[in-house]
Amino acid sequence: MLNVKGLNVFYGGVQAIRNVTFSVQTGEIVSIVGSNGAGKSTSLKAISGVLRLKKGTIDFLGRNIIHFPSHEIVKMGLIQIPEGRKIFPTMSVLENLELGSYTTRAKKKREESLKKIYDLFPRLAERKHQTAGTLSGGEQQMLAIGRGLMSIPELLMLDEPSLGLAPLLVKEMLNIVKTINSEGITILLVEQNVAHALGISTRSYVLENGAIVLEGKGGELLRNEHVKKAYLGM
Hints:
Low-confidence stretches: none
Shape: globular
Order of helices and strands: EEEHEEHEHHHHHEHEHEEHH
Number of domains: 2
CATH class of the largest domain: Alpha Beta
CATH topology of the largest domain: Rossmann fold
Strand content: 25-35%
CATH architecture of the largest domain: 3-Layer(aba) Sandwich
Number of strands: 10
Helix content: 25-40%
C-alpha cells in the first residue's frame, strides 16, 4: 500500500531524515518507534506532503505522491492524525468531526461515518455539542482520531496517540488502534511508547538519529537486546 524509499528531509541546512526506507502492506499495523527527536514525526509529515523531500520516493497505492499537495493526498485516502491532536478548541465536537469529511466521497457518507465514530467513541456522542477545548486529554485524542476517520482513510497515520495520556488511557488508546485496524483500516503508527507499540504491531521499524537501525516483527523486536536496553530499561 505504501512504499517509502530513500527518504531524505532537511530543515534548512540540517538533515532530519537520512535514506529512510520502509513499507506498509494492506491490513497491517506498522509502527515506527524511537526516542524524541529521532525523526518519526518528520517522516509522517513528508508522506503527508507537509514537508518536501530533498531526495527519495513515496508511492501510495501505486502512485508516486511526492509532488502532490496535502489535500490531494487526503483525497486518495492517506490520512494523518497529528501529534498534539490539533483539534479546533472553540468549535463543538460535532463541528470538529464534520470538518474531517470535507472531500466529496467523505461528505456522501458523513452520517454513516458519524454513527460508526459514536459507536467507537461513545463519549464523543455524549459530548457532541460540547466545546472541544473543554474535553479531557483522552477525549481530545479520541476526537482527533474520529476526525481522521471521517475522511474514510485507506491508510491512517497516527503520530504519538498516547502522548500526554495517563498509563491506563495509553492502553485504552492503543486498543482502539487495534479495533480500527480490525475494521479494515491499515495503520502506520509513530510512538515513543515502544513497548506498547511493538506489542500491537505486525511489523516495526526503529528510527534513531534520522535513520532506520532495526526492523522486524513487533514481537521479535521486543526481544531484541538493543531495543530492551535502549527503550525498555531492561
